[in-house]
């Protein structure tokens, strides 16, 4: 079994990659949609365009509900509105945005929502309503007005929400995998940075490292040889010893995945240069990689990365983190490893023993020991200290 075969043997389906629990996937949108439909049911008078403008001024947050109703992603909305606002002028010929036409500036959905409560809010309501109407809002609302609240909720939960949730899940699963890996580093006794990554993976920005001197630099720094990492492991003297890249792809990684794999190859070269000049304290490059999405283009993505990582772990093989840290002398204490019988075949167990368990100075066991100072569940294995 080579590294790529190991990856496919242990790859996790989307459902097995944990969702980070720190973010909401629905935000009470069903209730918001019901409120919007109910408002329309009792307040449509005059033209439909005027009714929607009044609705947006009455409750600017209706923007989110209408966007979902029309199946428009958050990104699609704010990019479309950025362009429309960039081109729009008031009846007196004044631009709606401060920037000049030759200086387009992207604005967020929250920014556009806030315009509906500030100066020129009537102009903004007219612009936003016009955008929604151009996306067939009148026909859709007319159809919804004949439905009961229960039916509206059923349509939201079964037809509208899944699309929105699917878009968010990819992000939250990536952060969930990052948190799971960070927890394994922490439980192994490693000094991780950011220090609370195992508790709040989205709390801080990923650290940037100057690979020429292996020092953390500011996020504003932009120069050759500076790269961002999801997690760092330091030794007792505070020196960086492990760089961790996390790439979780449950769907097609696309050009982003190709670019990231090329970046990993470049990072490998820079790490090797640093290690050649600092042999007493080498730095290791580890990957936290998983997902069936890599099957879309394995040669251009995962195969390249596995060829340059010093080691890598997946959701099902998180136990490898403790073993590798022990092998390179950053942690200690793992004495025995019990791999799950219902996941690893005898042949796979033999591979993991010779490749990871024995080099770390641990034993492969088939039954729990009578005594252990501590035991840690990691992926599809239990570590005994």
Helix content: 40-55%
Number of H- or I-type helical stretches: 13
| Backbone structural class | alpha/beta
Radius of gyration: 26 Å
Q: What is the typical, i.e. mean, pLDDT?
A: 90
What fraction of the residues are assigned to beta strands by DSSP? 5-15%
Overall number of strands: 12
With strands numbered from the N-terminus, the spatial order across the biggest sheet is 1-5-6-7-8
Spans where pLDDT lies below 50 across 5 or more residues: 23-27
Elements, N to C (H/E): HHHHHHHHHEEEEEEHEHEHEHEEE
Shape by Cα distribution: elongated
Distance between the terminal alpha carbons, to the nearest Å? 28 Å
Report on the biggest sheet. 5 strands, mixed
Model description:
- 45% of the residues lie in helices and 13% in strands.
- Residues 23-27 have low confidence and may be disordered.
- It starts with a helix and ends with a strand.
- It has 13 helices and 12 strands.
- Strands 1-5-6-7-8 form a 5-stranded mixed sheet, with helices on both faces. A 4-stranded mixed sheet has the order 10-9-12-11, with helices on one face. A 3-stranded antiparallel sheet has the order 3-2-4, with no helix packed on it.
- The chain has helices at residues 3-10, 29-43, 48-58, 62-69, 74-87, 109-115, 121-133, 137-144, 149-187, 254-277, 302-306, 319-327, 346-357; strands at 191-193, 208-210, 215-217, 226-228, 231-234, 240-248, 284-290, 311-313, 336-339, 363-364, 375-378, 381-384.
- The protein is elongated and about 80 Å long.
- It has 385 residues and is of the alpha/beta class.
């Amino acid at each position: 079994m080579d590294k790529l075969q190991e990856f496919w043997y242990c790859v996790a389906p989307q459902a097995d990659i944990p969702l980070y629990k720190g973010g909401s996937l629905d935000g009470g949108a069903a209730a918001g949609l019901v409120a919007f439909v109910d408002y329309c049911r009792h307040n449509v008078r005059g033209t439909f365009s005027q009714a929607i403008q009044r609705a947006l001024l009455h409750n600017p947050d209706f923007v989110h509900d209408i966007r979902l109703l029309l199946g428009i992603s958050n990104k699609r909305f704010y990019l479309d509105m950025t362009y429309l606002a960039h081109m729009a002028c008031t009846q007196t010929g004044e631009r709606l945005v401060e920037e000049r036409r030759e200086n387009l500036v992207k604005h967020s959905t929250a920014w556009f929502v806030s315009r509906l409560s500030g100066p020129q809010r009537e102009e903004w309501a007219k612009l936003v309503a016009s955008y929604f109407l151009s996306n067939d809002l009148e026909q859709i609302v007319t159809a919804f007005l004949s439905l009961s609240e229960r039916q509206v909720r059923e349509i939201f939960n079964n037809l509208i929400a899944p699309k929105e949730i699917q878009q968010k899940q990819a992000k939250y699963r990536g952060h969930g995998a990052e948190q799971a890996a960070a927890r394994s580093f922490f439980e192994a006794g490693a000094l991780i940075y950011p220090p609370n990554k195992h508790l709040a993976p989205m709390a801080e920005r990923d650290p940037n490292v100057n690979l020429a001197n292996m020092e953390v630099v500011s996020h504003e720094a932009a120069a050759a040889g500076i790269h961002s990492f999801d997690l760092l492991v330091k030794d007792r003297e505070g020196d960086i010893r492990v760089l961790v890249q996390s790439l979780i792809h449950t769907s097609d990684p696309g050009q982003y995945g190709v670019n990231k794999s090329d970046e990993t190859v470049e990072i490998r070269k820079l790490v090797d240069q640093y290690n050649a000049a600092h042999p007493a304290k080498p730095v290791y490059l580890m990957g936290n990689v998983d997902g069936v999405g890599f099957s879309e283009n394995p040669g251009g993505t995962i195969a390249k990365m596995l060829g340059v990582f010093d080691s890598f772990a997946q959701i099902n093989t998180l136990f490898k983190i403790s073993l590798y840290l022990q092998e390179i002398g950053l942690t200690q204490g793992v004495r025995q490893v019990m791999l799950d019988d219902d996941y690893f075949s005898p042949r796979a167990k033999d591979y993991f023993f010779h490749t990871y368990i024995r080099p770390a100075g641990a034993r492969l066991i088939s039954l729990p020991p009578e005594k252990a100072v501590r035991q840690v569940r990691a992926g599809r294995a239990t570590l005994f200290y």
